[in-house]
Design goal:
heterodimer, A: about 230 residues, alpha+beta, Glutaredoxin, 4-stranded mixed β-sheet, 10 helices, 4 strands, globular, B: about 240 residues, Glutathione S-transferase Yfyf (Class Pi), Chain A, domain 2, glutathione transferase activity (chain B), glutathione transferase (chain B), transferase (chain B), Glutathione_S-Trfase_N (chain B)
Chain lengths: ~230, ~240
């Protein structure tokens, strides 16, 4: 009998949460099928995709007919449903709570503030064919700076990973957001050695699946640095 | 040492934690943090929560912030009835899905209404541009529609037949605009029926007690320290305008 890949994920590799899902699946060798949804081509607005997810967003997971949106929910579901090492989403209440604390905080800080820089430096100029709005970008960079201070100060105080001694879903979600501005040639961790070390540790722990997921972003990075 | 829960009931996430703890008879010490008096900036509270926000808990040496994390932690630690945070993986995933979406999809929008319509102009005497308010009200309609069509659909509660943490986190945000006179339930019978069900499950007395604050928002705004006002003004401008 042919192996049925009952797990499907709808992804756009330019999307940070999509990369987190992709990396998790590949790193943990979970059998799955990737269905590409190119946001820049409006493939999230087709009647078919809208039927699947009326919010028209990615990632989406379909497990034998069970449709799930929101990367946090998807990652937590997969971490529990498949035999992955426990460190990803620990079972002990205090340790799990620390991961939940990060994934909640992430929504209001790392995700919007890092994404905003990429949107302003890459997406908006590309779509409008206008130059980057410098004052707005400066404010966004300041806000991101404050957020990175908080990330370091709270989550990396005396530990190698965001929630303790081992990599968790928190590090995976965070690192994908932090990589995004590279698409515009900007390394937001420049001059932040503690965070740079953390990023190296995360990349090492994820090995090949990290670079594989970031291919499209690296290509974008090459394009933008070659313009300088 | 008993569980300490740091709360200011004007805050929506504080209400969800308060309601959950009371409803489930979780013994705790209520540590009041009056945000408008700047009590979140005390040295003592800084040791409990680095981010200086409420709600926060201290359980022995263990400290935790973020209401979502606190709620799931309390559900697991105190073994509350399964329906709050179901063990069934797919039902739990539905709860997680709402808890994730709501940060920007609901709280980020409904949470601003009381501020922009009442607190900022009346208590802090800062002008809110009409276009800003109008645009926020349009966004609110979008959030409520998404809530009804995607998360509630034709079910009695978000996760299905029974109330869960998702409904609790949703209700406190959806109630908040009422403090500014924005009646979100007026033309939404489905939403209103859901609210009644949630209130009945929580218990009307506890529900009403927890929400008392928002109905006193205007009164409360008059009691804000003048010196506190000056400290808050630049922060508020940065956050909302």
């Amino acid at each position: 009998m042919a192996a049925k890949k009952a797990l499907e994920v709808y992804l756009d590799m330019l999307s940070q949460p999509c990369r987190a899902v992709h990396i998790f699946l590949n790193h943990n060798k979970i059998p799955h099928t990737v269905k590409t949804v190119a946001l820049r081509k409006g493939e999230n607005r087709t009647a078919e995709f809208t039927k699947l997810n009326p919010m028209q967003k990615v990632p989406v997971m379909v497990d034998n007919g069970f449709v799930l949106t929101e990367s946090d929910a998807i990652l937590k579901y997969m971490a529990t449903n498949y035999h992955v090492p426990e460190h990803w989403y620990p079972r002990q209440p205090e340790r799990r709570a620390k991961v939940d604390e990060y994934t909640a905080w992430h929504h209001n800080y790392i995700r919007p503030h890092a994404a905003k820089v990429f949107i302003m430096e890459v997406l908006v100029p590309h779509m409008t064919r206008q130059p980057v709005e410098q004052p707005k970008l400066q404010r966004a960079l300041e806000q991101l700076g404050d957020t990175l201070d908080k990330l370091e100060g709270m989550f990396l105080k005396r530990q190698p990973f965001l929630c303790g001694d081992d990599i968790t879903l928190a590090d995976l979600l965070a690192v994908c957001e932090i990589m995004q501005p590279l698409g515009g040639g900007r390394d937001i961790l420049k001059g932040r050695p503690k965070l740079e070390s953390w990023r190296s540790r995360v990349k090492s722990a994820l090995r090949g699946s990290f670079d594989e997921a970031h291919q499209i972003l690296y290509q974008l990075q090459d394009k933008s640095t070659s313009k300088l | 040492m008993p569980l300490e829960i740091y709360l200011d009931l004007i805050s929506q996430p504080c209400r969800s934690v308060y309601i959950f703890a009371k409803k489930n008879n979780i013994p705790f010490e209520f540590k009041k943090i009056l945000l408008f008096k700047g009590e979140q900036y005390s040295e003592e509270f800084g040791k409990v929560n680095y981010f200086r926000k409420v709600p926060a808990i201290k359980d022995g040496d263990f400290t935790l912030s973020e209401s979502i994390a606190i709620l799931t932690y309390l559900a697991e630690k105190y073994g509350t009835p399964d329906h709050w945070y179901p063990a069934d993986l797919q039902t739990r995933a539905r709860v997680h899905e709402y808890l994730s979406w709501q940060h920007s999809g609901m709280r980020g929008i409904a949470g601003k209404i009381l501020w922009l319509k009442l607190m900022i102009p009346k208590a802090f005497e800062i002008d809110v541009p009409k276009e800003r308010m109008d645009s926020l009200l349009v966004d609110l309609e979008g959030s409520l529609t998404a809530f009804e069509e995607k998360f509630l659909q034709d079910k009695p509660f978000i996760a299905g037949q029974k109330i869960s943490l998702a409904d609790l986190v949703a209700i406190v945000e959806i109630m908040q605009p009422l403090g500014a006179g924005v009646n979100v339930f007026e033309v939404r019978p489905k939403l209103s029926a859901w609210k009644d069900r949630v209130r009945a499950e929580i218990g009307p007395a506890l529900f009403d007690e927890a929400h008392q604050m928002i109905f006193n928002a205007e009164e409360m705004s008059k009691t804000i320290d003048p010196s506190a006002k000056e400290i808050f003004k630049p922060k508020i401008k940065k956050m909302f305008l």
